[in-house]
Write a structure and sequence with these properties.
The protein has 379 residues and is an alpha/beta fold. The chain has 14 helices and 14 strands. Helices cover 32% and strands 21% of the residues. Helix 1 packs parallel to helix 5 and helix 7 runs antiparallel to helix 8.
C-alpha cells in the first residue's frame, strides 16, 4: 500500500499506519535514514546475528544504565538488539520484556532468540506484541481471540470491546508495579500526539515503586509545526512526533516522576529540518516509593555545591541549613539520584548516612548530586 504524501489526520490510526509501514520494511531490509549513529559496548554485540545489528534503528543506548538482576521492559523493542544486550547486563537472575507493535520486527527478534540465548548462556527474554501507550493490552492474545471469534458485522464489535477490556483487566500484558526499569530507544516520538501523555502514564504505571525509566529519544529545539507533523515519511523518521526538548523532560514530571536527569545530550544536531534542529536525548526519571508523608522530626542539610535548590516536593533547600522534612522526602533523599547530596538527620540529630559517607570518602567515589534541573557536578 502506497504511503500518502500528507496525513489528513494525526489520529492514532493514521500515525500508526505511517509508522508501521516503514518499520515493516525496515525489518526486511536496512533503512539507513532511520538510524542515528550510536556506539554500543562491542562485547555485548558479539552474540548478535548480523541481521539484527544491521536492522537496528535507535538513537541512544539506555542499556548502559542497567544493573544485574533487574527486570527490564523495552518499549518498541524492534529486532531485539537492546533486549539481547540487556539480557547480558541483567544476567541469569534478571528478566527482559520486549514490546513492539510491528509483526515483522517481532518475527526478526523471535527467530534468532534460541540462537542468541545459546550464545549468552541463558534465555531470559520474552517478546510481546502491543502498543507502548497501552501496555495492558496483549495484541497476541487479542489476535488469538479474534481467530476464534471473527468480527463479521456490527454485532461483533461489542464482544470485541468486551474482550479488550477483559484482557486489560484480567491478563494485562505488563502488570502494575512489575518492572524495575523501563527503557526505550527512539520510539516515544512515534506515538500520536493525543496519546503522548497516556504513554508516559503507562511507563509510570508498570514501574515498581522506586523504579526508573531510562529513555533515549529524538527531541527538537522548537515545537514541530503542523506541516512537518503531517508528513508520513518524517513520522517514521523520528521527526514529526518529536517533542520539544523542554516539553520532553516536563512530560515525565507531569505524570508523577521525580529526580529527572538528563544523562546524555547529543552535542551536534542529528538532523535539521528547516530551522529546527533534532538531536538525541537520554533521560532517567524515578517513580516514588509508596507511603504517606508523616512528620517524625527528621531533617536534612543540603551539602551543595549550589547556594539553594528547589526539589520536586516544592520545598527549597539552602546549602548548610538544616531543614525539617516529612518521612517520604527523608526516604527520597537517601536514594538515587539524591543520595550523597544531603546529610540526613533523625529526630535525635544523628546522621543516618554517616557510614555510607565514610565509605565513599575512603573509596574516593563521588556521590550523586541532587536534581534541580541545572546540577551536573558533584558535591
Amino acid at each position: 500500500m502506497a504511503t500518502p504524501e500528507k496525513l489528513d489526520s494525526l489520529d492514532p490510526a493514521a500515525v500508526q499506519g505511517a509508522v508501521s509501514a516503514t518499520y515493516a520494511e525496515g525489518a526486511q531490509a536496512v533503512q539507513a535514514e532511520l538510524c542515528c549513529p550510536v556506539d554500543y559496548d562491542p562485547t555485548f554485540l558479539e552474540v548478535l546475528p548480523e541481521e539484527i545489528l544491521q536492522r537496528d534503528y535507535g538513537c541512544g543506548d539506555p542499556s548502559r544504565h542497567l544493573r544485574p538482576g533487574e527486570t527490564v521492559l523495552d518499549l518498541g523493542s524492534g529486532g531485539g538488539k537492546i533486549c539481547y544486550i540487556a539480557s547480558q547486563v541483567v544476567g541469569r537472575e534478571g528478566r527482559v520484556i520486549g514490546v513492539d507493535m510491528t509483526a515483522e520486527m517481532l518475527d526478526l527478534a523471535r527467530r534468532h532468540q534460541a540462537e542468541v540465548a545459546a550464545r549468552i548462556g541463558w534465555d531470559n527474554v520474552v517478546f510481546h506484541r502491543g502498543h507502548i501507550e497501552d501496555l495492558a493490552l496483549d495484541l497476541d492474545r487479542l489476535g488469538a481471540w479474534l481467530g476464534e471469534n471473527p468480527v463479521t458485522d456490527a454485532d461483533g464489535i461489542g464482544p470485541l470491546e468486551a474482550e479488550r477490556e477483559r484482557l486489560r483487566r484480567e491478563e494485562p500484558l505488563v502488570a502494575d508495579d512489575s518492572v524495575d526499569v523501563v527503557v526505550s530507544n527512539c520510539v516515544l516520538n512515534l506515538v500520536a500526539p493525543e496519546r503522548k501523555r497516556q504513554l508516559f502514564e503507562e511507563v509510570f504505571r508498570v514501574l515498581k515503586p522506586g523504579g526508573r525509566a531510562v529513555i533515549s529519544d529524538i527531541v527538537a529545539d522548537a515545537e514541530v509545526p503542523m506541516e512537518l507533523q503531517q508528513d508520513p515519511e518524517l513520522w517514521a523518521g523520528c521527526i514529526s512526533g518529536a517533542l520539544q526538548e523542554t516539553a520532553f523532560v516536563r512530560a515525565f514530571e507531569d505524570v508523577g516522576f521525580h529526580g529527572v536527569q538528563i544523562l546524555e545530550r547529543q552535542a551536534e544536531a542529528w538532523r535539521s529540518v528547516g530551522d529546527i534542529d533534532f538531536r538525541s536525548l537520554t533521560v532517567v526519571a524515578y517513580k516514588s516509593t509508596k507511603g504517606g508523608c508523616a512528620e517524625r522530626g527528621q531533617s536534612v542539610i543540603y551539602r551543595g555545591p549550589f547556594h539553594e535548590i528547589t526539589a520536586e516536593d516544592g520545598h527549597s533547600y539552602r546549602r548548610g541549613v538544616r531543614t525539617e522534612v516529612c518521612s517520604r522526602t527523608f526516604q527520597w533523599f537517601g536514594r538515587e539520584p539524591y543520595a550523597g547530596s544531603f546529610t540526613r538527620l533523625d529526630a535525635d540529630g544523628n546522621d543516618v548516612d554517616a557510614d555510607l559517607v565514610q565509605a565513599e570518602a575512603s573509596s574516593g567515589s563521588c556521590p550523586l548530586p541532587a536534581t534541580n534541573g541545572s546540577s551536573n557536578g558533584c558535591c
